Automatic annotation (TrEMBL):
Organism field: Marnyiella aurantia
Keywords of the record: Oxidoreductase
Keyword Hydrolase among UniProt keywords: no
Gene3D superfamilies per UniProt: NAD(P)-binding Rossmann-like Domain (3.40.50.720)
Family: Belongs to the short-chain dehydrogenases/reductases (SDR) family.
GO function term, MF aspect, one: oxidoreductase activity
The protein's name: SDR family NAD(P)-dependent oxidoreductase
Amino acid sequence: MKSNKTIIITGTSGGIGFVLAEYFGKKGHKVYGLSRKTAESPYFITIPTDITDNNQVQAAITKVLNDGQNIDLLINNAGMGMVGAVEDSTKDDIWKLFNLNLVGAVQLMSAVLPAMRAQKNGQIINISSIGSEMGLPFRGFYSASKSALDKVTEAIRYEVSPWNIHVCSLHLGDIKTKIAENRVKTSVSDPYKITFSKVHDLMNSHVDDGTEPLDVAVYIEKLILKDHWKAHYYFGKFGQKIGVPLKWILPQRLYEKLMKKYNKLD
Protein backbone atom coordinates (compact mmCIF):
# COMPACT_ATOMS: atom_id res chain seq x y z
CA MET A 1 0.00 0.00 0.00
CA LYS A 2 1.34 3.44 -0.95
CA SER A 3 2.50 5.64 1.90
CA ASN A 4 0.66 8.75 0.74
CA LYS A 5 -2.97 7.67 1.00
CA THR A 6 -5.48 10.02 2.54
CA ILE A 7 -7.91 8.14 4.76
CA ILE A 8 -11.09 9.41 6.40
CA ILE A 9 -12.43 7.37 9.30
CA THR A 10 -15.60 8.12 11.25
CA GLY A 11 -16.16 7.36 14.91
CA THR A 12 -12.54 7.84 15.98
CA SER A 13 -13.06 9.10 19.54
CA GLY A 14 -12.62 5.54 20.83
CA GLY A 15 -12.97 1.84 20.10
CA ILE A 16 -12.33 0.45 16.65
CA GLY A 17 -12.23 3.87 14.99
CA PHE A 18 -9.47 5.19 17.24
CA VAL A 19 -7.37 2.05 16.77
CA LEU A 20 -7.82 2.19 12.98
CA ALA A 21 -6.87 5.87 12.84
CA GLU A 22 -3.73 5.38 14.91
CA TYR A 23 -2.74 2.22 13.04
CA PHE A 24 -2.89 3.83 9.61
CA GLY A 25 -1.40 7.08 10.90
CA LYS A 26 1.61 5.19 12.23
CA LYS A 27 1.99 3.61 8.80
CA GLY A 28 2.56 7.06 7.31
CA HIS A 29 -0.89 7.75 5.85
CA LYS A 30 -2.68 11.07 6.21
CA VAL A 31 -5.61 10.18 8.45
CA TYR A 32 -8.57 12.38 9.31
CA GLY A 33 -10.82 11.23 12.14
CA LEU A 34 -14.40 12.47 12.18
CA SER A 35 -16.11 12.20 15.56
CA ARG A 36 -18.22 14.33 17.84
CA LYS A 37 -15.61 14.14 20.59
CA THR A 38 -12.04 15.22 19.90
CA ALA A 39 -9.55 12.37 20.09
CA GLU A 40 -6.01 13.26 21.15
CA SER A 41 -3.41 11.48 19.05
CA PRO A 42 -0.24 12.52 17.24
CA TYR A 43 -1.04 10.08 14.44
CA PHE A 44 -4.21 11.56 12.98
CA ILE A 45 -6.13 14.82 12.67
CA THR A 46 -9.49 15.04 14.40
CA ILE A 47 -12.25 17.08 12.78
CA PRO A 48 -15.12 17.39 15.29
CA THR A 49 -18.13 16.22 13.29
CA ASP A 50 -21.61 14.96 14.01
CA ILE A 51 -22.10 12.76 10.94
CA THR A 52 -25.88 12.97 11.26
CA ASP A 53 -25.58 16.71 10.50
CA ASN A 54 -24.97 17.02 6.76
CA ASN A 55 -23.68 20.61 7.08
CA GLN A 56 -20.96 19.40 9.45
CA VAL A 57 -20.15 16.49 7.15
CA GLN A 58 -19.76 18.78 4.13
CA ALA A 59 -17.60 21.18 6.14
CA ALA A 60 -15.32 18.34 7.26
CA ILE A 61 -14.80 17.04 3.73
CA THR A 62 -14.18 20.58 2.49
CA LYS A 63 -11.45 20.95 5.11
CA VAL A 64 -9.75 17.77 3.90
CA LEU A 65 -9.89 18.95 0.28
CA ASN A 66 -8.69 22.45 1.24
CA ASP A 67 -5.67 20.82 2.83
CA GLY A 68 -4.80 19.77 -0.72
CA GLN A 69 -5.58 16.11 -0.18
CA ASN A 70 -7.15 13.55 -2.45
CA ILE A 71 -9.59 11.24 -0.67
CA ASP A 72 -8.39 7.71 -1.24
CA LEU A 73 -10.31 5.75 1.39
CA LEU A 74 -13.40 6.31 3.53
CA ILE A 75 -14.05 3.94 6.41
CA ASN A 76 -17.62 4.43 7.64
CA ASN A 77 -17.10 3.13 11.15
CA ALA A 78 -19.30 5.38 13.31
CA GLY A 79 -22.34 3.62 14.67
CA MET A 80 -24.17 2.48 17.78
CA GLY A 81 -25.85 -0.60 19.11
CA MET A 82 -29.40 -0.97 20.40
CA VAL A 83 -30.81 -3.65 22.66
CA GLY A 84 -34.33 -4.42 23.77
CA ALA A 85 -37.45 -6.19 22.59
CA VAL A 86 -38.95 -5.13 19.28
CA GLU A 87 -42.30 -4.54 21.01
CA ASP A 88 -40.77 -2.14 23.52
CA SER A 89 -38.75 -0.04 21.07
CA THR A 90 -39.86 3.55 20.57
CA LYS A 91 -40.01 5.54 17.37
CA ASP A 92 -37.41 7.97 18.75
CA ASP A 93 -34.96 5.18 19.60
CA ILE A 94 -35.39 3.56 16.18
CA TRP A 95 -34.90 6.87 14.41
CA LYS A 96 -31.79 7.71 16.44
CA LEU A 97 -30.26 4.36 15.54
CA PHE A 98 -31.02 4.52 11.81
CA ASN A 99 -30.04 8.17 11.62
CA LEU A 100 -26.51 7.29 12.70
CA ASN A 101 -26.00 3.78 11.35
CA LEU A 102 -27.58 4.39 7.94
CA VAL A 103 -28.20 8.08 7.19
CA GLY A 104 -24.86 9.24 8.62
CA ALA A 105 -22.95 6.68 6.56
CA VAL A 106 -24.84 7.65 3.39
CA GLN A 107 -24.09 11.35 3.97
CA LEU A 108 -20.37 10.58 4.23
CA MET A 109 -20.41 8.57 1.00
CA SER A 110 -22.28 11.35 -0.80
CA ALA A 111 -19.77 13.91 0.47
CA VAL A 112 -16.62 12.09 -0.72
CA LEU A 113 -17.91 10.76 -4.03
CA PRO A 114 -17.48 13.98 -6.07
CA ALA A 115 -13.76 14.05 -5.20
CA MET A 116 -13.37 10.34 -5.91
CA ARG A 117 -15.11 10.72 -9.27
CA ALA A 118 -12.81 13.61 -10.19
CA GLN A 119 -9.71 11.53 -9.45
CA LYS A 120 -11.32 8.43 -11.00
CA ASN A 121 -10.58 6.15 -8.06
CA GLY A 122 -11.46 5.59 -4.44
CA GLN A 123 -12.38 3.03 -1.82
CA ILE A 124 -15.23 2.99 0.69
CA ILE A 125 -15.59 0.45 3.47
CA ASN A 126 -18.88 0.42 5.35
CA ILE A 127 -18.44 -1.24 8.71
CA SER A 128 -21.34 -3.62 9.16
CA SER A 129 -21.99 -6.58 11.43
CA ILE A 130 -22.28 -10.32 11.09
CA GLY A 131 -25.57 -9.67 12.87
CA SER A 132 -26.85 -7.85 9.79
CA GLU A 133 -27.29 -11.24 8.12
CA MET A 134 -29.85 -12.46 10.65
CA GLY A 135 -32.37 -11.02 13.07
CA LEU A 136 -30.65 -11.22 16.46
CA PRO A 137 -32.90 -11.61 19.50
CA PHE A 138 -33.28 -8.34 21.39
CA ARG A 139 -31.12 -6.62 18.75
CA GLY A 140 -33.65 -6.62 15.94
CA PHE A 141 -33.34 -2.95 15.01
CA TYR A 142 -29.54 -3.02 15.19
CA SER A 143 -29.57 -5.96 12.77
CA ALA A 144 -32.04 -4.08 10.58
CA SER A 145 -29.99 -0.86 10.50
CA LYS A 146 -26.83 -2.69 9.44
CA SER A 147 -28.75 -4.81 6.93
CA ALA A 148 -30.12 -1.62 5.40
CA LEU A 149 -26.58 -0.28 5.06
CA ASP A 150 -25.55 -3.53 3.38
CA LYS A 151 -28.24 -3.17 0.74
CA VAL A 152 -27.26 0.44 0.08
CA THR A 153 -23.67 -0.76 -0.29
CA GLU A 154 -24.72 -3.35 -2.86
CA ALA A 155 -26.66 -0.73 -4.82
CA ILE A 156 -23.99 1.96 -4.82
CA ARG A 157 -21.36 -0.49 -6.06
CA TYR A 158 -23.15 -0.53 -9.43
CA GLU A 159 -23.60 3.22 -9.48
CA VAL A 160 -19.98 4.25 -8.87
CA SER A 161 -18.13 1.47 -10.68
CA PRO A 162 -17.63 3.54 -13.91
CA TRP A 163 -15.22 5.77 -11.96
CA ASN A 164 -13.12 2.93 -10.50
CA ILE A 165 -14.62 3.47 -7.07
CA HIS A 166 -14.85 0.34 -4.95
CA VAL A 167 -17.31 -0.15 -2.09
CA CYS A 168 -17.84 -3.06 0.30
CA SER A 169 -19.44 -4.03 3.59
CA LEU A 170 -17.11 -5.39 6.25
CA HIS A 171 -19.19 -7.51 8.63
CA LEU A 172 -17.57 -7.70 12.06
CA GLY A 173 -18.24 -10.17 14.82
CA ASP A 174 -17.87 -9.14 18.45
CA ILE A 175 -14.91 -6.82 18.91
CA LYS A 176 -13.44 -6.08 22.33
CA THR A 177 -14.55 -2.47 22.79
CA LYS A 178 -16.76 -0.40 25.12
CA ILE A 179 -19.74 -0.66 22.78
CA ALA A 180 -21.92 -1.88 25.65
CA GLU A 181 -21.56 1.52 27.33
CA ASN A 182 -22.86 3.38 24.28
CA ARG A 183 -25.79 1.20 23.22
CA VAL A 184 -29.32 2.51 23.12
CA LYS A 185 -31.13 0.37 25.68
CA THR A 186 -34.90 0.43 25.56
CA SER A 187 -37.01 -0.14 28.63
CA VAL A 188 -37.89 -3.83 28.90
CA SER A 189 -41.46 -4.78 29.77
CA ASP A 190 -42.33 -7.57 32.18
CA PRO A 191 -42.95 -10.39 29.66
CA TYR A 192 -39.36 -10.10 28.38
CA LYS A 193 -37.35 -9.22 31.50
CA ILE A 194 -36.07 -12.67 32.45
CA THR A 195 -35.17 -13.72 28.91
CA PHE A 196 -33.65 -10.35 28.06
CA SER A 197 -31.45 -10.42 31.15
CA LYS A 198 -29.92 -13.74 30.08
CA VAL A 199 -29.36 -12.62 26.50
CA HIS A 200 -27.97 -9.24 27.58
CA ASP A 201 -25.43 -10.83 29.92
CA LEU A 202 -24.44 -13.22 27.14
CA MET A 203 -23.93 -10.51 24.51
CA ASN A 204 -21.77 -8.52 26.92
CA SER A 205 -19.63 -11.59 27.65
CA HIS A 206 -19.18 -12.11 23.89
CA VAL A 207 -17.89 -8.53 23.57
CA ASP A 208 -15.52 -9.01 26.51
CA ASP A 209 -14.18 -12.14 24.79
CA GLY A 210 -14.19 -10.53 21.34
CA THR A 211 -11.51 -9.99 18.74
CA GLU A 212 -8.97 -7.24 19.36
CA PRO A 213 -9.56 -4.00 17.40
CA LEU A 214 -5.96 -4.10 16.17
CA ASP A 215 -6.74 -7.33 14.33
CA VAL A 216 -9.47 -5.47 12.43
CA ALA A 217 -6.91 -2.85 11.36
CA VAL A 218 -4.54 -5.52 10.06
CA TYR A 219 -7.39 -7.15 8.14
CA ILE A 220 -8.46 -3.85 6.55
CA GLU A 221 -4.87 -3.11 5.55
CA LYS A 222 -4.82 -6.37 3.59
CA LEU A 223 -8.27 -5.71 2.16
CA ILE A 224 -7.43 -2.32 0.66
CA LEU A 225 -4.50 -3.84 -1.21
CA LYS A 226 -6.87 -6.01 -3.26
CA ASP A 227 -7.51 -4.97 -6.85
CA HIS A 228 -11.11 -6.18 -6.83
CA TRP A 229 -13.56 -6.28 -3.95
CA LYS A 230 -16.44 -8.55 -3.21
CA ALA A 231 -19.55 -6.85 -1.84
CA HIS A 232 -19.21 -8.52 1.56
CA TYR A 233 -16.36 -9.56 3.83
CA TYR A 234 -16.70 -11.26 7.20
CA PHE A 235 -14.24 -10.93 10.08
CA GLY A 236 -14.54 -12.39 13.54
CA LYS A 237 -14.39 -15.60 15.47
CA PHE A 238 -15.34 -18.80 13.67
CA GLY A 239 -18.35 -19.47 15.90
CA GLN A 240 -19.92 -16.20 14.76
CA LYS A 241 -18.87 -16.24 11.09
CA ILE A 242 -20.25 -19.76 10.60
CA GLY A 243 -23.74 -18.46 11.36
CA VAL A 244 -23.87 -16.75 7.96
CA PRO A 245 -23.41 -19.76 5.63
CA LEU A 246 -25.51 -21.90 7.97
CA LYS A 247 -28.40 -19.49 7.48
CA TRP A 248 -28.05 -19.90 3.72
CA ILE A 249 -28.09 -23.69 3.70
CA LEU A 250 -30.09 -24.88 6.70
CA PRO A 251 -33.88 -25.12 6.90
CA GLN A 252 -35.27 -22.13 8.77
CA ARG A 253 -36.63 -24.20 11.63
CA LEU A 254 -33.28 -25.89 12.27
CA TYR A 255 -31.40 -22.62 11.99
CA GLU A 256 -33.69 -20.96 14.53
CA LYS A 257 -33.21 -23.90 16.87
CA LEU A 258 -29.42 -23.45 16.68
CA MET A 259 -29.75 -19.70 17.21
CA LYS A 260 -31.92 -20.24 20.27
CA LYS A 261 -29.33 -22.58 21.70
CA TYR A 262 -26.47 -20.16 20.94
CA ASN A 263 -28.37 -17.33 22.63
CA LYS A 264 -29.47 -19.55 25.53
CA LEU A 265 -33.14 -19.15 24.66
CA ASP A 266 -34.00 -22.87 24.68
